[in-house]
Amino acid sequence: MTAPGPSFPRLPRPTSLSAPFWAAAARHQLVIQRCRDDGRYEWTPQQACSRCLRETLEWTPASGRGTVYSFSVVTRPAVPGLAVPYIVAIVELAEGPRMLTRLRGLDPHDARIGLPVRVAFEDADELALYLFEPA
Amino acid sequence: MTGLDAARIVGVCTTQQARSLLPRTGFSVALEALTGALADAGLTVGDLDGICSDISGWPPGSPQLSADIYWSRQLGRPLRWPMRWPGAGVGIASMLAAASAIGSGLASTVALVSAGVREPHPGAVAPWARPADEFTDWTGSYTAVQYALAAQRYLHEHGETALEAMALTSATIRNYGSINPGAVYYHRGPYTAADVLASRPVASPLTMLMCSSVNDGGCAVVLTSADRARDCARSGIRVLAGAAQWPYPSYAEAPVLDAVPDAGRFASDALARGGVRHCDIDVVELYDHFAIGVLMQFELYGFCGPGEAADFVRSGVMGLDGRYPTCTDGGCQSFSHNGNPVLYQLAEAVRQLRGEVADDCAGPHDHRPGHCRAVRAPQIALAANPGPPTCGGTFAVLARD
To answer: Which of A10, B122, B289, B378 has the fewest Cβ atoms surrounding its Cβ within 10 A?
Structure first.
């Protein structure tokens, strides 16, 4: 293991539930769960569908497209030495779920709610982190 | 009347609150709070049959789950009412559980204790502000950022001018703390909304003065039965109503404003069950961790409609001469945030109802803003604790007996 880069405070530790998500991310593919019975999409990963409560969730590729639901330009870092400013955002995926993430590839002054974005992966050790950039 | 009404809050204590209480330990501060609240009630440790606590560094190396067992060991006798409900924490949810236990005869006298003393962590946000969740921590969205996301969306939906209202909540709350001799930031102020907006940016749109303090301190609250309360040192405080709603795990899900349809229904139902109308409420101790939270709680608890909190606040309701004096001790932002500051709201509500608040009045309370923070003869108070960043919380309504 190498130390995490200065852009992120700490790298995620996948669980047995989230392992398929992180494995797909490492291949630069965004996947989310979908109920094979009623079609409902879930984020974050769940054990069972939050509508029908059946264990019928399957990992399925997401479009990687969405719009910014909200954002914050962070100037006080979570840990000392972290590069600031950074932009934390909630992205509403085309499939419906809202995902906490980071924005990249834009000036903080240009961040706005409603901005169309697409997923962009950044490799970090064995993992890849899912950020979003202007579409 | 509800089953809660068989219990009374009979003792409260807040210890010194300070940027640091080192070299004292969390347990030492907890003991001071516990014995202080028992003395306030005119009860002794021997009267207790339940303790619910959240104490930094204690019990050593053990989960809070078993804290009541360590209390039994420390007291040298077993507690009869085990309070092992980790999800309830030590705040208003536990107070409601304790009142229910007293009402059903499971317990007779219960103490709630919170104390935090932490090692310094220079340059970093407070340890309790760093969620460990795998989908949250890597983004650098510590608690202030989570509330900033909610605040930014709130401005988008309800108008950018709500930012000034957020700043006004912080100025009003901090100005109460500025005249509270027990507050960490006593005599720091007064502030205007413009001062708050001009303070250092943290996570847009939130500035430093819209965020909680980071400090040490302790608090305890003691409840007993209405029967026993008649023999206590002071008249007891009734619990008229209460409820909790926690629709999603904090800091693991994105803090969206529409996580729950009709988010305030849990509160309006509970107020109706307790026979409480908003016009009956005289003082409001919200959980002011971040300025946006104050706006959202006014809406959640039905003091105003959805999206109306900015205008509601701008009308001056939170001040001592306003309709609902709010966070009258200075709240998490000026009085104290000890890592888990969920008993202070109860303690302040009790003190207001008793007419026992300390401030800068030279003589009797004259109820003038600027040096007095005593609400005029309040009968009913609402106190609230946090839920997740949006769409939830825990609250109770207290009343003079």
So the answer is: B122
| Residue B116 near residue B216 (C-beta atoms within 8 A) | yes
For chain B (length 401 residues), average pLDDT per consecutive 10?
A: 84 97 96 98 95 89 72 90 66 94 93 92 75 90 96 97 97 98 97 98 98 96 96 92 93 94 96 96 98 98 97 98 98 96 97 97 93 97 95 97 90
In this structure, the answer to whether residues B259 and B389 fall within a common structural domain is: yes
Residue boundaries of the structural domains of chain A: 19-134
Contacts of A69 in chain B (CB under 8 A): 153, 254, 256
Q: Is B159 on the interface with A (CB under 8 A)?
A: no
What is the spatial distance between Cα B176 and Cα B300, in angstroms, rounded to a whole number? 23
Same domain, B82 and B199: no
Residue B105: partners with Cβ closer than 8 Å, 6 or more residues away: none
Contact of A9 with B138, CB cutoff 8 Å: yes
Q: For chains A and B, what is the number of CB pairs under 8 angstroms?
A: 111
Chain A partners of B134 at a C-beta cutoff of 8 Å?
12-15, 18
CATH code for the domain in which residue B86 is found: 3.40.47.10
Judge if B165 and B225 occupy the same domain.
no
Amino acid, single-letter form, for residue B286? L
Contact A78 B253 (CB under 8 A): no
Predicted complex ipTM: 0.95
- What are the chain B neighbours of A90 within 8 Å (beta carbons)? 149, 153, 254-256
CA atoms of B163 and B170, how far apart (whole Å):
11
Using an 8 Å CB-CB cutoff, list chain B residues near A100: 135-136, 139, 141, 149, 253-254
Residue finishing a domain among B194, B229, B264: B229
- The shortest CB-CB distance from A90 to any of B206, B208, B254 is to B254
